[in-house]
């Protein structure tokens, strides 16, 4: 149905079409390829996949409710192949695709993300990029740049201005998932570095049913093109509003359940940027379904020591395929200490503030309330 509504798709080759999403390929000439995903948010679930937190980066947030007013955690980088394997273990044949998403600028075992993210109702980072509208940006071009937010729910997706001082729209309770990033024209590759051909991922929204609200996400991944050329491809498909860009370059990743890995992170030829195969933030796309799956809980265990501080917030992150709620418990070895929460939605995120000093023998257990033997563990290697 998606392909039938787009006359401009005639020069795209369909690779994988399901009810709610389609993957298409376009030959750009000289061996270059563009991959287009069309996702109907009414029929598809969008999952944000984030590595575990080893350090909270308290007071280091630059773009949420004022510079230095929020935290900017260090998220564990996760190998792209491990992420796709776990995603398919959780959701099986419901999985459609997986891409890398947020910008990051630190090439270590864990990294801060460039701009704010809201994950299932919780703002998990205030961002930390020097290439943005902060008091002392790394380049003066970014002093007056207006960041954008992609917001979505189960009926529509939209792109709007982001306001760092207020946190709008992320601060709004009705907004559950949102990602802050650049307009494509403000990407450093275009704004500072002559718009050279490279790998890019761009996203726009589109209304195809005539009802108010854009129900389609169009995600374009190019192998070797300028960012203007990539944006023009989305314009040709009917995108009239803002076009955003996500992390690209050597770390670009695109996986499809039927086609496999279409683009994987490249080995870097730069002396300053190492080969990046481990990434901190992904977007997964899968069909919405109530089909019973083997229940699983995955917890990302950071490789470094977890820097928990008494009376300071910490983000507990996990992902699962459970229907019901979970309980999060604190243990010292095998001794139960307390419930962090006796009931919370199985949405993969909980902000917790420890009220007692903890040691290396403590661990958190995330336990399914419906399947008591299904749990995930996070060992607290405390600073």
Radius of gyration: 21 Å
Amount of helix? under 10%
Characterize the largest beta sheet: strand count, sense, and whether it forms a barrel.
11 strands, antiparallel
Give the helix/strand class. Answer: mainly beta
Mean pLDDT, all residues: 92
How many E strands?
Answer: 28
C-alpha end-to-end distance: 54 Å
Shape from CA axes? globular
Number of helices: 3
- Our estimate of the beta-strand percent is 35-45%
Q: Which stretches of 5+ consecutive residues score pLDDT under 50? A: none
Keywords:
globular, 383 residues, single chain, eleven-stranded antiparallel sheet, mainly beta
Q: Overview of this structure, please?
A:
There is one protein chain. Strands 1, 2, 3, 10, 11, 12, 13, 14, 15, 16 and 17 form an 11-stranded antiparallel sheet that branches. Strands 4-21-8-18-19 form a 5-stranded antiparallel sheet, covered by helices on one side. The chain has a 4-stranded antiparallel sheet with strand order 25-24-27-28, with no helix packed on it. The model has no long low-confidence stretch (mean pLDDT 92). The protein has 383 residues and is mainly β. β18 and β19 (260-263) form a beta hairpin. The protein starts with 12 loop residues before the first strand and ends with a strand. The protein has 3 helices and 28 strands. It has helices spanning 80-91, 188-191, 227-236; strands spanning 13-18, 21-29, 32-40, 44-50, 53-55, 74-76, 78-79, 95-100, 110-111, 117-119, 122-125, 148-152, 157-161, 177-183, 198-206, 216-225, 244-246, 254-256, 260-263, 278-279, 281-287, 297-299, 314-320, 326-332, 335-344, 349-352, 362-368, 375-379.
